[in-house]
Fold each of these.
Amino acid sequence: MELLGIPPLVAQVFALGRTGYRLVRDFKSTGEHSTRLLGELEIEDRRFQAWGEATGLSRSDWNGLQHCYLDQAVLDILCSIVLRFADISKLVERYGHQKSQGTGQEVETKVAIESISILDYKSLTNLQSITEEVARYREIIKLTQTSISALNKFRWVLADRQKFKRLIDDLHSSNNSLGALSTPKTLAVANSLSTFDLLNTNDPSHLSLISTSSSSSHPELSRTAAFKSQNLLSPSSFSLPPDPIPHQDLVIDDPITPSRTLALLLSKNVPVSRVLIEWKSRGSFSNPISSNASSALILSRIQKLVHLLASNPPHAFRTLSCAGYHAGPIRIGLIFNLPSSASGTSLPSSLEQLLGDRKIVQAIYGGKPPLEARFRLAHALAQAVAGLLLVNWLHKGVCARNVLFFPCKDDASAIDISSPFLTGFDFSREVTDRAFSENSIGLANDLYRHPDHDAGSEFQKSYDIYALGLVLLQIGLWESLETLGGVEKDNEGNFVYASHRKLREDLLERCIQSGRLCYRMGTGYQNAVRYCLNMGIGLQHNEKMRPIAAGSFFSMVICNLTAFSM
């Protein structure tokens, strides 16, 4: 039910709720249990804030309520949240003052209410149905004003944690109710924003707290926080696989293939299983140091990558579980378990293959994949790249060739393009690992290469985002990059084009500026692709080293794609 005057009232009460969260989060912890409770409170605070961002209420955008089903029901929930903070203010006053450090004097501070006009009483003339709530709001304001200055002077003690936990449970329930009253698209955007906000830190201890605090209520967030915390630890703290999988434990379908093949893994510790092997030539690494030292660094990086990909990565990363690695004299193979739903009899198809051979897609969809399937595919890949960058890992191989689709176990001819897997991790490294750089496969022929990425220079996060934009462009128009860019091949199969910079300019002109992509996929999708293709362009070296404005990436890419992938 929508009543006159409710939208601005909702935004005003939301602002008061944000103030209440800030006050309660200032409580000091006294012990491990209290610290975890404050971690749970932080999660609910971020969820509440992200919901406000997704609906526009945090910007006093009344139109944001079009993304909610019942304005008055939303108002009731927000009122219950604010009332909880008023109740906790009363409870806190029962526990002693905290002395200020050094003086022994009690801290006296003035009321610090920000200039929030809680109610616009003129707008309530025709709102007889919420007269009772108006009186309650006045009481809330009175209680909050008298307790704000005191809240920061008290210490939350262990004896109170049951009551504090009750507050958190109520806030959790209220956030769930707000989500239930939001459209699926708005809820998905809010979830993405809160996850990013909570994980946008490089403090392993805080990430560990987030992981512990969210283990029961938000298991995927818990996994991602634990994964990032683990990744931030020094390599010496990892329990790395001591030895590669020996050749006699692998029955390889095609030992000659240069890139990827299926195999049978024969291990004493696990049942016989079908696996996928991705090969990397040892010669693909540059050797700025002695060959022995370089070889040791290669194996060290491979071992850490195996450990990370075997340690239950979050589902949103769209990665395969790593079973180990095989180190041959000429190449190194990363060994991946197949998805449980996949057929182990035939190789997966890559996005590059689907774009180049329309017969495969024609047999499945009767033409190009439907719009909703392409949106879900684009969103899944953007989420995967965003997740990797958020945990400080550079993929370095984002391209259509490394996006795989596995045939279904029940029907080997069936492929679900909305369920991709991102591979090509043989070139990956963590952001802080600058010991040496690898040569990408065929740099001169790498169409996904960032125009400002000079040979031998350090790889940047922006380069992965740029490559993602090229993949999204192909998905939107369902044509290969060579076709879109007018790239031809010479007699030896090498791509012929003026430069990576000219290729980018041609793609922008032909696909973006012409309105072609917008016509096919809409303005939001086009804006996401444009953002990626403009990432890191024209920056000086010292500017490239600056952190990416990850918030803008999430809002321009993830949120835009989320809004259309539901």
Note: Residues 239-338 form a domain with the Phosphorylase Kinase; domain 1 fold (CATH 3.30.200.20).
Amino acid sequence: MPPKAKAAGRGRAPAKRKLAEEFPPGEVLKDTMKKEWKLGAPIGQGGFGVIYLAEENSANPVGADARYVIKVEPIDNGPLFCELAFYMRAAKPDLIQSWMKSKKLKNLGVPRYWGSGRHERGGQRYRFMVIDRLGTDLQKKFEECGRRFPRKLVLQLGLRLLDTLEYIHEHEYVHADVKASNLMLSHSDPNQVYLVDYGLAYRYAPEGLPKEYKEDPKKCHDGTIEFTSIDCHKGASASRRSDLEILSYCMVQWLCGRLPWEDKLQDPLYVRDAKIRSQENISEFMAKCFSSQDKPDEIQRFMEEVKSLGYTAKPPYDKLRSILQAGLKTIGPKEDGKLEFTSASGAAAPPTKVSAPTSAELESLALLSLPQLIRSFPSCVCMQQPVSDCSQCWCSSGQTSSPLYVMLELSATT
């Protein structure tokens, strides 16, 4: 999936946004409830913000085992503001816990919201949000598995996402951008998966009343082009059926490796028309994606059920779950809750390999700002994983001896 095509799919983003400047480890931020949070190492960059490890403020430095992350963006930027609206309404820990109890769920794939606020540094104002720390995203796992997941894993993911989407929908929102890179494993439990990035989340039912279908040419093709729904291609706002249509495309791609329109992602009209044809004849679409022996009947039934939904209709979540559960039963033993990331052939996924920078690269990197640094130095200081998902962002020898820390210190003095 070419990154450029994905970027093109988010066509309404402002032309210019400010980049977040670096904050030093130990910076303390105070949220709207007067609670203080201490920043640790930066572990990733999303859009125009920076993501830091964080803990509740104390005399201790924030270590590699931090339980939280803080997303920071300049206050004039829009994406974090949109995410905050969702998190504050729908992701408070007590809301999530209450839902899990009522539905008898052991886990729900929505990161918990712990706080937010504004912070000023060097004359620049920032907005920040505190959420659970998570681990690796599923796109990395998908690539490591040779761009095909086994059928059991896909059905497990589909069931967990149904639980997550039902929760989001019942709290008046749709996600509108479900995809592997927006799905992250728990930092502490590799069998839990979370849906992240609510920058496109849309409140489809303010006060419980779903908005009516309306096309807006300025909104055509919003979302990630290969997965976005037909409604969004046409300029309508995302709905509950949009999220489920997007999920069906994800499941097909995870099973067969690619969608039929992936070679034409630079042509959104072609992609839209290909999706319309796929919905007009789902059986033919499935035949293009799978051999007759490999065709997962439960995915076809899932797609047909979603196709029958009206724009404002409430999806039959239990029926959709039963369709995927029936597919799981044909595979073998009872679902054990474990997510096994192997290739479709059964081989275990290899570990992510990252090359260490040369000494010349280290010298040049020392002159960069933090956003540039993260882009240019994608690997963790332990050289084992990308910095965005490594659980050991400072090496065991200590924070001040890590090359990334040295470069941060140097960049702060140049």
Note: The CA atoms of residues 100 and 165 lie 13 Å apart.
Amino acid sequence: MHSDEFALILIKPDALERGLDSEIFDGLVAEGLDVTKIGTIQFDLQFVMDFYQWPKIEYPDMMQAYMCVTPLPVWIARGENAVFKGMALKNRLRAKHCDGPMKNLFHCPCSQEESQWQYDLLKERHKPMETPKKRTKNQVEAIVFKILKNGELSFLMLKRIPERGGFWQPVTGNVEEGETFEAAALREVREELGIETIIQLIDTDYSYEFTDNGIDQFERIFGVQIVVDQTVALSSEHSEYVWASMDEALNVYLKYPGNKEGLRRLCEKVKQKGGRQ
């Protein structure tokens, strides 16, 4: 989804203690939302009152022990009907896991306006917290590859989780407002794979247009070379990965013509630079 609507998600201590934060994250992703972990916030009793707009706290000692001991993670879940989907997930997980009114896993505001207001309040208290950036209609595809000792190219293919189609693809993502295509490609590789060391970024000079959920998109394709022994750490968007030859990538894994043509263009660029196919 590429909507500017977002829901602020505050993970509460009982979710952290029970290891349920990953279930919350996966549930939001399964709803088709893009989730960004933007920081943590330390509450005190006064800030609890400000955040929830309460005139007073009925049981301050209990609230102090619950909300004000550990810094709490703050996420932004962005996408169409983000607030509605966040609220629905909150209700489902509370019904599944909670048996009391206080320990209730996570907070999601009831409206977009409340999300924005609470986010602004959190940002004012915690200056380093990132501002949720607006999505654009521009996309990047980053084909991660390595050059083996025999000179052959090996390409990283990622399998999307079933909720996101279950097909194989390279790294893809949205270009954020004010961001270059090149910076977006490198950021997506870091975020989706945990890869920081990049040998080179190659512009394939190939782009194409497509429609996603009724929204026209423009996508540019890059190659990203990494070291041979680089470890890959998948994000929650993907369930598995394989390293494939060019023929395997084109004939077994890649589904869409634009992805296939982008890989062919990358192979041509690498060959021009002295690499092999």
Note: Residues 139 and 174 are 5 Å apart (CA to CA).
